[in-house]
Amino acid sequence: MESQNIEDLIALDLQTFLNLKANNNNISIDDALEIAAYVSANFMRIIYAKNKSIEKHEINGIFGIVSNYYNSFFDGQITEEEFKDMANKSTQLLQNTSFDEMSKAFFNKIITESESDKI
Which superkingdom heads the taxonomic lineage of this protein's source (predicted)? Predict the structure, then answer.
């Protein structure tokens, strides 16, 4: 299987969970930023688990990818302050010792809600 670059993987996760959360309706900026925080934290966690450390440029790279994707997806509607809040939330999530469980629960809830809306 061919490996994908991190930009494509982050964009895929963002697109997937934004689409599931929206479920053919509009999505709130708060919901979108929460998804971004969890996706960002998840990728930072993956890098840390693989390398046993994460560098500042890797963190900035993840946030840059999310910012670029959201600026395009939301046509510039998200402010710089909102991006900073998202980045802070993402790093706070990682500091929680239960992050892995919280992340699974967060993403599973989006999936479950999306499936129940189809019924």
Answer: Bacteria
